[in-house]
Amino acid sequence: MGANESSILSEPDVILYPSMKPKLSDIPESCVASVLSYLDPPEICRLARLNRAFRDASSADFIWESKLPSSYAYILKLLLQDEKYRRLRKRDVYALLSKPNPFDDGTKEVWIDKSTGGVCLSISWRAMTITGIDDRRYWNHISTTESRFQTMAYLQQIWWLEVVGDFEFQFPSGTYSLFFRLKLGKENKRLSRWYYTTSENIHGWDKKPVQFQLSTSDGQHATRRCVLDNIGKWVNYHVGDFVVQDYNSLMRIKYSLSQIDCTHNKGGLCLDSVLICPFSVGKNLDILI
User: Fold this and answer.
1) Is 29 exposed, middle or buried (CB count within 10 Å of its CB: 0-12, 13-18, 19+)?
2) Distance of CA 71 to CAs 31, 171, 280, Å?
3) Exposed/middle/buried for 130, CB within 10 Å: 0-12, 13-18, 19+?
4) Are 215 and 198 in contact (CB under 8 A)?
5) In this model, does residue 21 exceed pLDDT 80?
6) Contact present, 37 and 63 (Cβ < 8 Å)
7) Residue 162 and residue 271: Cα distance in Å, rounded?
8) pLDDT-based confidence at 18, cuts 50/70/90?
9) 144: helix, coil or strand?
10) Entry pTM
11) Which domains does the chain have, with CATH numbers?
12) CA 244 and chain centroid, separation
């Protein structure tokens, strides 16, 4: 009897007052928000499902503003073209920018890479100056689900090829990589079956390399030469890298693809887009350097 009574009195909170045990919901919302600010966005979203306190804390503006790129206000102005973005919570801004958003009449898309928080851009071939692009003797404009822009340019044949792009953007500070997305050969359908163009339609690319070039308004340059041989497969051809130091300034980017040796004809090339992404993201792409 004495032993049992002693045991009861030694743990009064556990046995006599179980409701006084601390719970997750007892943690102050400000403390939860401070902890969440050190986590990555996917981790924040998972913890927000725990209970109401975590869900409410995960909406704090200071948490999400630290996850947004430094140029997010500039990007929102490009997308919304008015002051609507001022009424958005920072969490909603992050959700908006974490998916591809078209701008410039749908010829470009911008988004945030969820794993790094870096800004990525994709630019359609429609936003570039291309030799003979409106002449159907040389090019076809093909609708396809293989492109994020739902269309690609297919080169049938040409002697002189130049593809040139030129645009301005306010990048966050960091190192970026630029790629051309290309493929040799296109799919055709016959008797309900898909097949690629024959090797006779793909010609001229093994004779001389294609030259890729990149330059920036602050004097950075890159040049690469590569023989195209990626038949039936989309490949991101690495043009070069550039560094952004001042995130408050617009940077002008010029890039090009050319094969101007007129001693031979070339054809069978699919041109989709140009990709610009943080260097850390570019390292994980399917690329040819």
Assistant:
1) middle
2) 28, 7, 19
3) buried
4) no
5) no
6) yes
7) 12
8) low
9) coil
10) 0.82
11) 17-65 (1.20.1280), 108-288 (2.60.120.260)
12) 17
